[in-house]
Every structure is written in C-alpha cells, then in structure tokens.
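Problem 12. The chain below contains 156 residues. Write out its predicted structure in token notation.
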Amino acid sequence: MRHVYGDVGGDANRRGKGYTPYSCQKLLTEAPPSGGQTHGCPYRTYEVDNLIPLLQSVGVQDRALLQGVREDVGKQRYHIACNRVFEHAHAGQLRKVKDEGLWSASELDTILHPNTYFKRSFLLKNLGKVQAGDLGVDDPSSARRKEERDGDGMEM
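Solution.
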C-alpha cells in the first residue's frame, strides 16, 4: 500500500526517495531480466537479429553503423554499440556543440548511465531551448552563456 502512495519505492527524486536507477555497468554485469521484467540494456538483452531491425525501425539505416553494432554486440561491447548509435543519432548536434565550444569535453564523455543518455539526448535535441533546471540538470550551453554574460557585466 505504501508503494501505491509513493511513500516507498519509485525514483530517488520522489517523496519516498525510492531506488537509484542502475548504471550501465550494473545492467551489463547483473543477471539479465527474466520473464515479466522490463529493465535492462537492449544491446545486451536483445538477440542481434532482433536488435538490428529495432534500430532500423527507429531510423538507424547506415549499413556501416549497423555492421559496427553487430560486431560490438557479438564481442559483448554493448556500451560501445550504444555510444556508437548515440553519436550517429546526434551527429549534427554534437558537431555544433564541439565546433562552437558550447560543452566541455567532460560533458561529451562516453555515456555510462541510462539517465545520462536521456538527459544528454534531450539537451542535444533541444539546443538553445532548454532552460537551466529543466530535468534537474543545467543546460551546459546556457550555463556557459550565463557565465559569459555575468563576466561581461562585472568589468569596471
């Protein structure tokens, strides 16, 4: 009953403080999900012959990329396959933040947590639209613009 009302369980940002989400490392080293469970890394839990059509159905059509994913999954390098697809899906936005120096190198590191994947994807897809504090994270480019603005206003 306490789960139903959010007193226990749920995510860490809720009233009951809940459970912390699993990192990629934990998802890749723990037992895979069993029947009726819906968590896990799709690069690990899907058979490669099901994963490739899934990626194609969400718009990943590049043959070389799909072949790289197939090879990475075959070698159990799931995190590399995941980051490969992320970089392909956000190629234009990643190029922009690198070329314009909007994000630091640490903000572009390899993704090691599903929540980081989501937050970074959201921020990249909404470049310039995200306000500081959305999703509980600061938009790196808006934070940098604010620092520049504040720095310019402090000159005497």
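Discussion. The chain has a mean pLDDT of 81. Students who got a different answer should revisit the alignment rule from Section 12.3.
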